[in-house]
């Protein structure tokens, strides 16, 4: 059976399992999945569902989002956003209203930065198009003076 492209998920899981000093069987039991299935995931032969990854992450006491990124279910930016939100929501030193206000501010900053990035990308594209047009025009334009074209002195 050919190996699936799961973003080195299996290697990462094996490394995390060994760091946690768990056998394959122990992790499978803790995650509620079969030992052969977990073995196939570690060898890159199976691509697990998000639910299975969440169970494995919980058993390993690591971020499920990290496993989602490794499995190609979630991209890195989404993972960072989810982790930021989780940290804010889990902070016991602030109340629920404060958490919601922080999340609203966070969202507004992300939207503002995305809009600025889009404007910068558009400006760069316009500049690149203008530069390309100028280069093309210079190549097809009138030739400049040559050293032999100097007018004679009288």
Q: What does this molecule look like?
A:
By secondary structure, the protein is mainly alpha-helical. Helix content is about 70%, strand content about 0%. It is built from seven helices and no strands. Helix 5 packs antiparallel against helix 6. The longest helix has about 45 residues. The termini are far apart. The N terminus is likely disordered.
Distance between the termini: 89 Å
Count, helices: 7
What's the main sheet like?
Answer: none
Give the proportion of residues in helices. Answer: 55-70%
Topology at a glance:
Layout: H1 9-19, H2 24-31, H3 35-42, H4 50-60, H5 64-71, H6 76-90, H7 96-140
Helix pairs in contact: 2-3, 2-4, 4-5, 5-6
Summarize the structure.
With 154 residues, this protein is mainly α.
What key attributes describe this structure?
154 residues, mainly alpha
């Amino acid at each position: 059976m050919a190996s699936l492209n799961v973003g080195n998920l299996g290697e990462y899981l094996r490394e995390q399992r060994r760091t946690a000093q768990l056998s394959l069987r122990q992790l499978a039991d803790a995650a509620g999945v079969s030992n052969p299935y977990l073995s196939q995931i570690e060898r890159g032969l199976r691509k697990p569902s998000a639910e299975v990854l969440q169970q494995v992450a919980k058993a390993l006491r690591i971020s499920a989002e990290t496993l989602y990124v490794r499995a190609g279910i979630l991209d890195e930016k989404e993972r960072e956003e989810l982790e930021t939100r989780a940290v804010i929501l889990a902070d016991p030193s602030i109340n629920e209203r404060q958490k919601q206000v922080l999340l609203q501010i966070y969202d507004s900053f992300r939207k503002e930065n995305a809009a600025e990035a889009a404007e910068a990308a558009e400006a760069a594209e316009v500049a690149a198009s203008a530069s390309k047009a100028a280069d093309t025009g210079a190549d097809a334009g009138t030739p400049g003076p040559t050293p032999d074209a100097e007018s004679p002195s009288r």
